[in-house]
Amino acid sequence: LGLGFRDYLDDCLCDTKTIDSFNNGKLFPVLHQLLQTDYFRFYKVNLNKPCPFWAEKNRCGMRNCAVKPCKPVNVQNDCDNENHTEISLSRKLALFCSEKTRQAILEWKRYDDKEDYFCLLDDEDSPDSQYVDLLLNPERFTGYKGAEAWKIWNSIYEENCFKPYTVTRPLSPMTAYARKEFYRWLEELCVEKRAFYRLISGLHTSINVHLCARYLLAGEYKYKPYKWGHNLSEFQQRFDEDLTKGEGPKRLRNLYFIYLIELRALSKVLPFFEQPSVQLYTGQAEQDKQIKKMLLQLLRSFPLHFDEGALFTGDKDEAAHLKEDFKRKFRNITRIMDCVDCLKCRLWGKLQTQGLGTALKILFSEHQIEALPKSGSSKTNFQLTRQEIISLFNAFGRISTSIREIENFRSILRNISLEK
Ligand code: FAD
């Protein structure tokens, strides 16, 4: 199964320098600008779903775990107003809740191929769902750690990464023997299962890079303003070759792996966004045009190649079975996110798993995307919902930012050694 994919994994990832220079110099600045726009910054999410797997003990009460949802606004007054040229932020939020927009989203949803969802989408009509301004709630250090956080990571790896229970857990400090066993197990997995593990590990790396890069360095509630910044020793403890006995660099490589998978999904979905009928609706025609132009420019600038066709290409029955298994496990992970106590971590965890699920949906919908008519007719069986689009780009934005932050940490280290 999938030799091309194995080569890709083992060879291309060595060339992280090419990815660094492409991401940090070219892609990141444009993507960053795109994610500041109204379309991409408001994410509708249900953060109040109960954990389906175990009884939640306590919701994390730490200040840094809190999420600021969009303020409620008087929706009704804005609904009928077609002339929204000068619109305040709160009125823009109202537009997202307006009947017109809700209808547009429902229309998109009707076309969605539900069978192809990798993630369980939050019920958009649920009264518990709310719009969250992602720019007001940046992913950063929250203080969420210890047994609660480990329980989540444990469940994700042990129950969802095709991992037999008999294999030593990677989460506990590993003896040399346990480490050998773990990597033997990983090597023996078929390429798809290994890819799945690497995606999850890459996501884990990204979350941890963010908390190191936007660490709470100083400050006290009410008395001194918070100061956020790079925490080099935290980063080294997690990723340094010696301190992690070689685990850190492997985890960083998994970050590059998830980056390439999501990048490829984005380049593959270009024909979908090229359809004139696909709108990135914010309620302001000029702004919508600009956002779409920016998005198309970004997607057309990707030069990298990736042969994910090598996935699920072996024996037909086995391949179909694996693909279903892949989907099921991914859905399960999205449900585990409802068990994350820290709401800020839950928000970004949900967004990033939904974004990754959307990337996988794209990669496995190659034929449907190729069949998309250039004419602008919407009669195709490949669709993306607003939530999927927002999560796809924001999730990729997180990974892209992590890659840039690694470069920042490297340059901090270089400066320190120059000063010595
Ligand atoms: P953890 O990161 O908890 O890891 C547990 C064990 O997993 C490690 O001991 C190691 O053996 C293994 N491991 C670590 N990294 C990897 C990897 N990349 N691949 C494979 N195995 C690995 N904290 C914040 O401050 N801000 C956030 O926004 C945030 N978001 C989170 C979102 C989710 C969904 C979860 C589950 C946690 C989040 N956390 C966040 C917590 C954070 O990820 C860590 O769990 C926490 O900082 C404790 O770190 P740790 O060093 O104990 O190891």
Automatic annotation (TrEMBL):
Which family does the entry's similarity section mention? Belongs to the EROs family.
Q: Where does this one sit in the cell?
A: Endoplasmic reticulum membrane
Q: Which GO terms describe its cellular component?
A: endoplasmic reticulum membrane
What are the UniProt keywords, alphabetically?
A: Disulfide bond, Electron transport, Endoplasmic reticulum, FAD, Flavoprotein, Glycoprotein, Membrane, Oxidoreductase, Redox-active center, Signal, Transport
Alphabetically, which GO biological process terms does the record hold?
protein folding in endoplasmic reticulum
Q: Where is the active site?
A: 342, 345
Q: Where is it predominantly found? A: endoplasmic reticulum
Annotated GO molecular function terms are: FAD binding; protein-disulfide reductase activity; thiol oxidase activity
- Give the PANTHER family listed for this entry: ERO1-LIKE PROTEIN ALPHA, ERO1-RELATED
Say if the entry is tagged with keyword 4Fe-4S.
no
UniProt superkingdom: Eukaryota
Please name every pair of cysteines joined by a disulfide bond in this record.
Answer: 60-65, 97-119, 342-345
Does Heme count among this protein's keywords? no
Instruction: Report how it sits in the membrane.
Output: Peripheral membrane protein
Tell me which cofactor or cofactors this protein depends on: FAD
Where is FAD annotated to bind? 140, 142, 153, 201, 204, 238
Give the protein name, as stated in the record: ERO1-like protein alpha
Whose protein is this, by species?
Paramormyrops kingsleyae
